Amino acid sequence: MSLSERDELERWIEIIWDQAREFGLDPYPTHFEVVPQHVIYELGAYGLPARFSHWTFGRDYHRQKTSYEYGMSKIYEIVFNTDPCQAFLVEDNSMLSHKFVAAHVLGHCHFFKHNSYFQHTNRRMIEQMRVHAERIAEYEKQFGWREVENFLDTVMTVEMHFDPSAPLVKRKSAEQHEDDRLREGQPMNTDYDDIWNVAGRPDRPKPRARKFPEEPERDLMRFLMEYGRDLEEWQRDIIEIVRSEMLYFLPQMRTKIMNEGFASYWHEKILESLDLTSEEHWEFRRLHSSVLSPSGSRAQINPYYVGFQILKDIERRWDGVMEVGDDEETDWMGRTIARPTGEGRAKLFSVCEEDNDVTFLRRYLTDSLVKKLDLYTYKLQEVDGEKMWVVQDTDWRRVRDSMVDSMTNFGQPILTVEDGDYQRHGELYLKHAYDGKRLDLEYTERVLKNVHRLWGRPVYLESVADDKKIVLKCGDNGEITQEVA
Amino acid sequence: MTEPLYSVSTDAWDLHRRADRDRQRHNDKIKEVIRENLGDIIAQEDIITADRGKIVKVPVRGLELPHIRFDPYDRERVGQGPGGTKQGDIIARGPAEEQGQGTGKKAGQSPGVDYYEAEFSVDELAQMVFEDLALPNLEEKGVKQIMSESAVFNTITKKGIASNLDRKRTLLEAYRRNSRLGNSNKWEVRDEDKRFKNYDIVTEPQRNAVVFAMRDVSGSMGEFEAYICRSFYFWMLQFLKTKYTNTEIVFITCHTEAKEVTENQFFSLGDSGGTRMSSAYKMAIDIIEKRYNPREWNIYPFLFSDGYNWGDSECVELVKKMRDMCNLIGYGEIGSDGWQSTMGFAPLGQAYEEAFEHDQRVVLVKINDKQDVWPALKKFFAKGHPEVAAR
């Protein structure tokens, strides 16, 4: 990019910035970096600059780059949730694309700053990840890169099994657990003791069955890190690194549709307000519709498109504009809701603050939107002796529930640690919270072997298959057995 | 608010190539997986029939990191169409029927895909196949040695083509120059800093070698036997042409009479009639005596047959005679009938087994299915240790 182009870009970003503020957007300060295309694919694969090295990131980079080179997809921009935000623009894009992307980026930056699910993220994660990467590189030097890579491979197979509420919940320390246990059954020191303990006071703390963990534990990663047998310190450190990075990415996984929809809503608003030449306006419209169209594969949805249309619909309804086919909106008492005009923008900002994709779809996906977006459920079915993916239902409630269901626990099966001292042999008993969707047993078996490697003792996993309770076991010889209960 | 709320910069990112190392690790991993599955891969018909240099797709399974996930083929999902989609519409073809657990799917097209196809040229695959293979017992022989040429990257120059840019040295030079100017924090790269890797052509003596590819084309050789035969010889030829560029190859087909044929004929000929393998050996000996003086040539005769033959003892005598002229004699027996279940040899193989039990220069293999081709190659062409056993 030439110096004069850079000056022009800077001037435009200033205009866009001011316009965004005028519309009521309040983004973090944002640093824009103009980079070659390949850097964008690299950042996309790693999730953040300076993340630790792993072959899966190299694979993702290669796939995205190849898909771009075959003309199948293109990344225009990438922006990271940090304070200040870091945004990356592609150097060989046109000036109009830069304007388009800068406006889009500011939407994301506002979202990062205001959405409640992002409030506990580490906004200095770039530095944090650089530290992680250095530590892992150091381990590679010390223990050999193959050793470290193998261990990372093992850990990354369970990387989705942390507790999503972990950043919000203050955890009891081991000492507190013990204190609470001793205090249990003891008289409480309050003025109303005589009322609570009418049945008389027990003299000693109740002896309790030893249970470990006391409550089923959702944070398998942390459990393995803290209690895995025979793990070296560097290995525990790697588990914690992977876990904390997944926690950082969690809000993005949970708000993909909203976040993209919100940014798209704003790039349109801001670009429409700019003083564009007619060629630029045409290019903007073309770009806009290429981003906001059904995805090429009919097996997927385009989150940009879906999020954008829902937000536009919310704005319209809260502005009190009725459309043909709109049902009259009623409240829970069946009374007609007459919305005063002009609430649309305010409503958008509050949705952006409060919701995640699950609540967003549950509250705001309507019958007419499902038709407009042409959403449907589909399933594998046999047609004339051949397996085909066949559309099942276009009913909006089915579609909505199916979408929400697939996003529960950010799309991952929920596992809990039920017993860390199973059969008093220090074995690990896990349970899958079965909700009607059965597990891929082939993959599950491979993962269990990895859990066994981390735990150092036999591992069990309880689930359901074909309406029967099953228990998979990975024994010390690495062999998997399956029992039907 | 006094501090600026936005900033723009355009640093030199051209040399930023962090992902390349991890991409290389991924490529290495693909190759590892392929090496582990070579037995399955090399017996694929479409690879054998592909032209040299042609790209073939090789399914790579088991490389992905597994996660505990829902069964991808059991779930209901949500998709999005261009408008007007109705119940019962077919949106994509499902996974193909279990051919070795789902080959034939195209990665990225349908949901739940857990492997992808890596693309390799036949030459690249051949490189991997042959990495651990070598002509056994190869000796320095002959007066007319041919020089083979290969390129070795061993010099650094200031001029060169972009793909040969040595990034590390270039950055180092840039750093040095900037430091000299007192800007030790700057990494600005100029043309004068660029360093390129360059190569030299090195020559090394090639040893003279001739391989006799002999093939039973009698009526008892069925479709399967012919396929295995083709498959084995295809890889053997690729191997020789890749690693021993100056090796001569003599093709002989045989039923009751032996015939010297061209490579094309060798692969396409099917014949009929009885079997007298001794005539193939006789012809080979004749050709050796006329054209390949054993003092000047490393000689490797291979014969593939189903083991049903007239005059087994005559064959044994001829192999004994050849043994003194040759570096290694290979016999491959292809079985698809009752012999297969006992893994034993047919009469001709049995005769060899008895006669050459303790002779490392006569190597026998039995091939019962496609997967045995690779172990057979390894047994014949094991580097250094000829006793590497076939499965």
Structure described in brief:
Chain B: It comes from Capsulimonas corticalis. By secondary structure, chain A is α+β, with helices and mostly antiparallel strands.
Task: Walk me through this protein's architecture.
Chain B: Pfam families: DUF444 (PF04285). The complex is a heterodimer of chains A (485) and B (391). Chain A is of the alpha+beta class and 485 residues long. Chain A has 18 helices and ten strands. Chain A is globular. With 391 residues, chain B is α/β, with parallel strands linked by helices. Chain B has three domains: 15-63 and 115-131, no CATH class; 147-204, no CATH class; 206-381, von Willebrand factor, type A domain (Rossmann fold, 3-Layer(aba) Sandwich), CATH 3.40.50.410. Chain B has twelve helices and 13 strands. In chain B, helix 4 packs across helix 6 (223-243), helix 6 packs across helix 12 and helix 9 (312-323) packs across helix 11 (347-355). Residues 97-110 and 385-391 of chain B have low confidence and may be disordered.
The coarse overall form of chain A would be globular
Q: Rg of chain A from C-alpha positions? A: 26 Å
Number of domains of chain B: 3
For the termini of chain A, the CA-CA separation is 66 Å
Protein name (chain B): Sporulation protein YhbH
Pfam families (chain B): DUF444 (PF04285)
Organism (chain B): Capsulimonas corticalis
Descriptors for this entry?
heterodimer; A: 485 residues; alpha+beta; 5-stranded mixed sheet; 10 strands; 14% strand; B: 391 residues; alpha/beta; Rossmann fold; 6-stranded mixed sheet; two-stranded antiparallel ribbon; 22% strand; disordered C terminus; vWFA_dom_sf (chain B); Sporulation protein YhbH (chain B); UPF0229 (chain B)
List the helices and strands and how they pair.
The complex is a heterodimer of chains A (485) and B (391).
Chain A: H1 3-23, E1 30-35, H2 37-46, H3 55-69, E2 77-80, E3 85-90, H4 95-114, H5 125-143, H6 145-156, H7 174-183, H8 193-196, H9 220-227, H10 233-254, H11 256-273, H12 278-291, H13 303-318, H14 344-354, H15 357-364, H16 367-373, E4 375-383, E5 386-393, H17 396-407, E6 415-422, E7 427-432, H18 441-455, E8 459-465, E9 468-474, E10 480-484
Parallel strand pairs in A: 1-3, 7-8
Antiparallel strand pairs in A: 2-3, 4-5, 6-7, 8-9, 9-10
Helix pairs in contact in A: 1-4, 1-11, 2-3, 4-11, 5-6, 5-10, 6-10, 9-10, 11-13, 13-14, 15-17, 16-17
Chain B: E1 6-9, H1 19-36, H2 38-42, H3 45-48, E2 55-60, E3 77-80, E4 90-93, E5 116-121, H4 122-130, E6 146-157, H5 167-180, E7 196-206, E8 209-216, H6 223-243, E9 248-254, E10 258-261, H7 263-268, H8 278-291, E11 298-305, H9 312-323, E12 329-334, H10 338-342, H11 347-355, E13 362-367, H12 373-380
Parallel strand pairs in B: 8-9, 8-11, 11-12, 12-13
Antiparallel strand pairs in B: 2-5, 6-7, 9-10
Helix pairs in contact in B: 4-6, 6-12, 8-9, 9-11
